[in-house]
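Q: Got a minute? One more chain.
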Amino acid sequence: MNDAGAGAARTGSDALGRVFAAVKSGDTPTATRLAVGLLERGIEHPLLLNLRALSFEQVGRFKESLADLRRAHVLAPKDPTILNACGLTLMRMERWAEAVRCYDQALALNPDFGQAWFNRGYVLERLGEVAAAAAAYARAAEIHPQNVQAWVNAATLAARRGDAELTHRYAERALAVQPDYPTAVLALASVELAKPEVAEARLRGLLKQTLTPFDKALALGQLADVLDIQDRPAQAFDAYSASNGVFRDALAQRFADPGIDTIPEVLRWLTAWAEGLGPGGWVEDPGDEASPASPSRHVFLLGFPRSGTTLMESFLATHPDVVSLEERETLNGAATAFLTRPADLNRLAGAKGAELEALRADYWERVRGFGVEPAGKIFIDKHPFNTLKLPVIRKLFPRARLIFARRDPRDVVLSCFRRRFNFNATTFLFLDLQATAANYDSTMRLADVLTAKLALEPFTLAYEELIADFEAVARRACEFIGADWRAELADFAGRARRGEVASASSAQIARGLYADGAGHWRRYRAQLAPVLPILAPWVERFGYPAD
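A: Always. Here it is, folded:
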């Protein structure tokens, strides 16, 4: 090496040393600025790429971040921290299955990498692999026993599966680290419903503490469940109302401030468009021809939340010829393109060709990104909120089969008001009984209009009929989707107990078939009185008894 080359090498080495020093001192901005400068001069090092990747990620440039991390992995293939960083970036891109593979590679290099175990748990939870997620969180906690959040997450997922033993084990470890940790207490109370007096005492003790609004709301909601089990409906309803009021106050700015598009507004313009759709106003596009990568049959399971969609998906997904996806946002690309503004719908009505092919490709990429391979299978996309997306479903997949879940509207509205959901623009409405009933009414009217105008032929699957005669109704559903009847479909509860059901309803599914969910509204007749007139036309239309 000549003197000039040696000087350049020393300069690069000195500059790299300054980056390491800045990182060691905690001065990440300086380290990142120096790293970017060195990379622009053609000096490569895994640390430099990692720092620039972080700066890209912080401004939402995830593709560039991932590219830098993959290059860093090439330079340092034995470094598990780079693979962990790749997983984090893929998580932010919602490429969940790829993220899991990154964490698996990191853990193959270092089985005691606690943060990778925790991150793996988070991704598996998003994928609906609840049991595996709980195990990953527990492993993270075993490696770092002071990681209270890992213990709590494991306890919460165990409770969701109805596993009281594991819930107690994990929650008690969390409470040993941080006594009275609210989420751990809530997990314990959720598996103590068989001893409601114990759960009630635990929750009332928790409510005496100073809690965040969300923890307070969750505790009030669980207390309401305990009061309901004790057949104290008036007190339970007051507790549900109090819980929902706390949530409403905390979330109003996000979902109800002026200028925010609300679901009632979207339903109004969707329905107005559908009602005005005349003959010839809709162009069919049969471009979703079967290919080796396509499912043998494509099914959308729709309806209204708490209508029994999770129960229906659970027994169908038990079939060996079926793969399913629970409540994942697979249609976001198409919805963004065609359901953002009223004017978009006219473009949707006439859309065909390459634009639709790109959106179909986006849909299947999202499906596979959630870890589901539909090729050659009957694929069920279960999402009750996709009822509002029926126009894009019909346009993209005109040959897809539709199952519409039905349940007594009064039970549906009460259940929506009582249950705790992940919040979005629709579930925010469920915090108010009147808004819930109005939303149900508007959604059913939209579904009616779209069924007529778009010539849809959905199969109606009634919750109460399924409970009353499971085999007969399940046989009809199997025939509709093109699956043969299997006796093992009756063992759908095992999926929930094994942690294969992601929905918030998984604890109920783990119980198997039970009839106490039908007609539950009667216990709350007095509290439901203000909304019964809104629901009465649908009660009559669907053939439910008036009282």
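A: Residues 233-255 form the longest helix (23 residues).
Q: Perfect, thanks.
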